[in-house]
Amino acid sequence: MGTTRGFFRRRSGDDERLPPGQYLERGFPVLSAGPTPHVPLDQWDFSITGSLSEERSWTWDEFLALPREDFTVDIHCVTTWTKLDTQWTGVSVDTLLDGVELEGGYLTALCDGGYTTNLPVEDVTGGKAWVVYQYDGEELEPEHGGPARLLVPHLYFWKSAKWVRRLIFTDEDEPGFWEQLGYHDRGDPWLEQRYQGD
Ligand SMILES: Nc1nc2c(c(=O)[nH]1)N[C@H]1C(S)=C(S)[C@@H](COP(=O)(O)O)O[C@H]1N2
Ligand SMILES: [Mo]
């Protein structure tokens, strides 16, 4: 892997885009805590539940009909790789929450397979988070979270829950899978918030 990276010339400016302790990755590693789930699209739905004024859910077709955004962002995994200029298509969490009043300050993303991660509402609103279903112009591969994953690029990549099916809004912050195992509650790569106490 180290030798492969040597074949690429770094563009100027790349280094400033690397948070502390991160290296530039050109591939796209797969990191999953369990097996890749495969849910048929006619059985797939997406919902927002919990402490909000109105619970909502969408079938796959309804989800695809929502306003979509194409965007390019850098992603940062806590295992120290950073990948620049990744291209995604999906629905902004702002769009999912349009017209909904939130009553709590937190949420838990819940995935097929049982993976969870917790976030403060401010980290998924204001144009900072999406539920994406395309990567690099193609449908999102199952290994990378397809049919759809949460994408919260300004936080470490474990917050970007693959195979996400539901956002559960909560009054209290409830630690998710990695957070219960000692990873930081928020995970800002620029503050190097890797573990609890960082
Ligand atoms: N459902 C689910 N989402 C997950 C994970 C997981 O194990 N299960 N791993 C997280 C971690 S630690 C990382 S770094 C990224 C990896 O995403 P990738 O496999 O597309 O690179 O997914 C995150 N989302
Ligand atoms: Mo990770």
Automatic annotation (TrEMBL):
Pfam families assigned to the protein according to its UniProt record, in alphabetical order: Oxidored_molyb
Residues annotated as region Disordered?
Answer: 1-21
Cite the InterPro entries for this sequence.
Answer: OxRdtase_Mopterin-bd_dom (IPR000572), OxRdtase_Mopterin-bd_sf (IPR036374)
Oxidoreductase molybdopterin-binding domain segment(s): 34-178
Name of the featured protein: Sulfite oxidase-like oxidoreductase
**What organism, scientifically named, is this protein from?**
Solirubrobacter phytolaccae
